[in-house]
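pls design
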């Protein structure tokens, strides 16, 4: 069966918004990718799933490197612009600069990175896997910088969100009861 874009089942996932930066036949470019995931600790691997017709995909296939910046809560407009048109038709990086968003040159790859994101990852293409109507590009992280003053933007039901209340762990006695039950079912 299909899980189409915008379907009420499809939109139940809660994701980050990855800002994928690239350079190649379409010049400096940026797109939003909610399908951005950390997939390995050692080495540090990050996967982004990108539609077959995106400028970003062609750029990355050419240069074998890309940036992934995890959008912060104050970058919803940036995320909408990056995801609202294609680098095939629009110079989104210049448009975003005119809108006062800032970029900096990556340290280890020839790519622009987004200033003010929560996390900036410089990636070398590690693997490319065709998955249905998207291509999963797995990047090996070769440089990472963290901005502790920012919080990640969440994406759910085609809307942007701030992480809300923490759900506390159950009280100690309940944790003990759970532990006993788990031990009872040990294999
Ligand atoms: C919040 C948000 C999340 C998105 N997530 C993805 C995604 O994970 N994969 C994808 O292929 N497109 C995704 N898109 C759509 C692309 O960002 C959009 O098609 C963009 O225009 C592609 O740009 P490009 O052609 O310059 O690469 C998303 C858009 C938004 C606004």
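designed seq:
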């Amino acid at each position: 069966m299909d899980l189409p874009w915008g379907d009420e089942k499809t939109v139940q996932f809660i994701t980050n918004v990855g800002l994928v930066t690239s350079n190649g036949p379409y010049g400096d470019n940026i797109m939003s990718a909610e399908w951005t995931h950390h997939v390995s600790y050692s080495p540090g691997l990050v996967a982004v799933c990108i539609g077959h017709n995106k400028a970003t995909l062609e750029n990355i296939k050419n240069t074998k490197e890309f940036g992934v910046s995890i959008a912060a809560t104050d970058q919803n407009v940036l995320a909408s612009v990056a995801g609202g048109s294609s680098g095939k038709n629009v110079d989104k990086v210049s448009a975003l600069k005119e809108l006062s968003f800032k970029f900096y040159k990556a340290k280890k790859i020839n790519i622009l990175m987004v200033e003010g994101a929560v996390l900036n990852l410089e990636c070398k293409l590690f693997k490319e896997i065709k998955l249905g109507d998207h291509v999963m590009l797995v990047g090996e992280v070769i440089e990472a910088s963290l901005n502790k003053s920012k919080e990640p933007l969440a994406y759910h039901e085609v809307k942007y969100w701030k992480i809300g209340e923490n759900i506390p762990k159950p009280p100690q006695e309940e944790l003990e009861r759970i532990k006993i039950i788990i031990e009872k079912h040990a294999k």
